[in-house]
Amino acid sequence: MNTHSPRYIGRFAPSPTGPLHLGSMLTALASYLDAKSNKGLWLVRIDDLDPPRAANGACGQILNTLERFQLNWDDEVVYQSQRHSHYQDYLQRCIALKLAYRCTCSRNKIIAAGGIYAGTCLTSPPPRDEKTYAIRIKSPKTPIKFKDQCQGEVKQHIPSTVGDFIIKRKDGLYAYHLACAVDDHLQGITHIVRGRDLMDSTPRQIYLQQVLGFSTPSYLHLPVVVNSKGQKLSKQTHAPNVAQLPVKDTLYHLLFALGLTPPESIKDNIGLMLDWGIDHWRSRDTINKQSIIESSLNF
Ligand SMILES: [Zn+2]
């Protein structure tokens, strides 16, 4: 990691479940502009915790697309799949704090009971010799609050939203929230810019930061890009691969989607568009908070 510690370190952390679509590209661009307009560092982390879901070749394709858009990252790319020992260390800390417990409940059983985990295995623990179990963390009684840079005040009472949540899965994989909180801390991330679809999980990550003694970064949750049916762009909704779109046009329209109005005269130059975006990013208050319709990007 960097030996100097600027007051701003941002990151873009895609899950390599497929190529970048316009929604993920919007996030990449916004986090880059936010970092650079604050004279900060911009890091890329591949959140590939879940190898079966990581699509073949997606990592290379994501990095290649970022390079074509000239979104150059400031340090080596970090891969979550190579950081299990860190997650294990902090999982142990949760156990030592007596906040973690074993759970053998099936997902279906929890969904059937309303989807909020009621602490079944806390009150009646599974047998000692049980080999297959998830590890959950006790959720905090008081609500978690934070001020989002785009969405405003956010407050969530975890016990009545999800209940005690998983930090290590039954299949042995570390849960995304734990990995994310640990990596953001170890990478010294001070500012997180990401999609609004992840905002529901932010309080869980903030809670883990509090439990583990980490500082909480500043958050900015962007609107998600939706198709004409109102569905979030994803592999499942057959969102077009950004790698197949023309870079300059795409970048130009993404700047508009972020509430900026770049002059047409810079449309032919990626570097100029990025520099212009960095200079004008402070108008982020103009971002539409909820969602951006894909067709408004003029493709
Ligand atoms: Zn259980």
Describe what this molecule looks like in 3D:
- The protein is an alpha/beta fold.
- It folds into 2 domains: 9-81 and 181-297, Rossmann fold, CATH 3.40.50; 84-177, HUPs (Rossmann fold, 3-Layer(aba) Sandwich).
- It is built from 10 helices and 12 strands.
- Helix 3 crosses helix 7.
- The model has no long low-confidence stretch (mean pLDDT 91).
- The structure holds zinc ion.
- Residues 103-105, 120-121 line the site of zinc ion.
- Zinc ion is lined by residues 103-105, 120-121.
CATH topology of the largest domain: Rossmann fold
N-end to C-end Cα span: 39 Å
CATH architecture of the largest domain: 3-Layer(aba) Sandwich
Sequence stretches where pLDDT stays below 50 over 5 or more residues: none
Structural class: alpha/beta
Shape: elongated
Cofactors and ligands: zinc ion
Largest sheet: 5 strands, parallel
| Structural domain count | 2
C-alpha Rg (nearest Å): 20 Å
Oligomeric composition of the shown chains: single chain
Beta-strand content bin = 15-25%
The first-level CATH class name of the largest domain? Alpha Beta
Helix content: 25-40%
Sheet with most strands: strand arrangement: 3-2-1-9-10
In CATH, the homologous superfamily of the largest domain goes by the name: HUPs
Strand element count: 12
> What's the pLDDT, averaged over the residues?
91
Can you write the helix and strand succession as a string? EHEHEHEHHEEEHEHEHEEHHE
SS element count, helices: 10
